[in-house]
Amino acid sequence: MNQPTGQEDKVxxxxxxxxxxxxxxFTQKGFAAVRxxxxxxxxxxxxALLNYYFRSKQKLFDIIMLENFRKFLHIxxxxxxxxxxxxxxKIALLVDIxxxxxxxxPDLPLFVLNEIRVNPNKIAMEMHSGDVPGVSRLLAxxxxxxxxxxxxxxxxxxxxxxxIGLTVFPFVGRPMLQKITGVDEDAFYKMxxxxxxxxxIWIKAILNCS
Amino acid sequence: MNQPTGQEDKVxxxxxxxxxxxxxxFTQKGFAAVRxxxxxxxxxxxxALLNYYFRSKQKLFDIIMLENFRKFLHIxxxxxxxxxxxxxxKIALLVDIxxxxxxxxPDLPLFVLNEIRVNPNKIAMEMHSGDVPGVSRLLAxxxxxxxxxxxxxxxxxxxxxxxIGLTVFPFVGRPMLQKITGVDEDAFYKMxxxxxxxxxIWIKAILNCS
DNA sequence: GTCTATATACGGATAGAC
DNA sequence: GTCTATCCGTATATAGAC
Lengths: 210, 210
Description:
Two copies of one chain form a homodimer. Helix content of chain A is 71%, strand content 0%. Chain A is an all-alpha fold and 210 residues long.
């Protein structure tokens, strides 16, 4: 979880322990299905401390939700913002970063997609203020590519649905896909690594065929 | 909802009213976030009747969950089982049926995928007994196609992830996709209709490019 | 079958000692 | 900062009249 730091994560403060436990449980089960007692147990702390550090269950959840949401959307930030890259290079980079992120946070997309549907209001603001950093530029680049002869018309919605669907969906549907195909967890994650190279190729093929 | 029946759905029995209300709310919000009072209000019946007809909230939920799960998986049944169809024909038919089903039940996939993750045990049985009717045959057909020269190797897991991802994901991510692209609900569902023709073409392109 | 009233349990939150 | 004990609202479920 905290790989970049040199020290291993056993020296968390009480507040951090609560937050990490809350993140784990809320992300897996959602707000209503988690009891504050579960969080306290998971964190190995006393129940009263939860309210001491974070006034209420709701406040704690809001913090986790915002952080999860940012992490999910800000995949496309920093490096991918550089406009020197071609559309194809951006796609390859984006898929690479996103699959790494999803491998480390496999429960994130289901949580976020659920919250967006249940709670469109809280989310809308974040969606516009952050503006999903690189995505608008990516779509602009797609549209200008539409103009040139190389690849014909492709609606931004279809393009995004394809790109995110191919990249994110396997993680959302992992238990189902494993059950149907009989692939174990190790093999599954190895195949997700393969997809880093495959998806950009597939996306290109899709763009060239309408 | 009950389109095949000639009569319109205002003449539901009390039991059916409760079940329909429960289906709607549970599918949207999940078990923990729904109160029995919400279901009673939505159904327009007295709270005590819920326990009279379905012993408990949990029992009622189990019924809904099982039905939702079957509906989601049995997309691939009946017509698609016919083995006279080629792989390409099956894909086109499957995508067509699935998009129609998802258009009428847009909350279904998120509910089912959530439940599978939270509750893998209850689900496993259903997954084997039903064996996701047409899918195993579809995959067998894919593998035999791998053998012939036409299309090279494609792992079943990649194939399924692509097919389901392209078809199902847009519905799971609809609110997000609409927000990012600015497409309204009407236009969104029209584009889903377009995808009935596009996805089979894209899948073919993907199969031909590795 | 349907209602009102109520028992009972559970979960979020706090008071107050240490 | 951390603990124990407890309060209190809320939600499920049932008893019993009609």
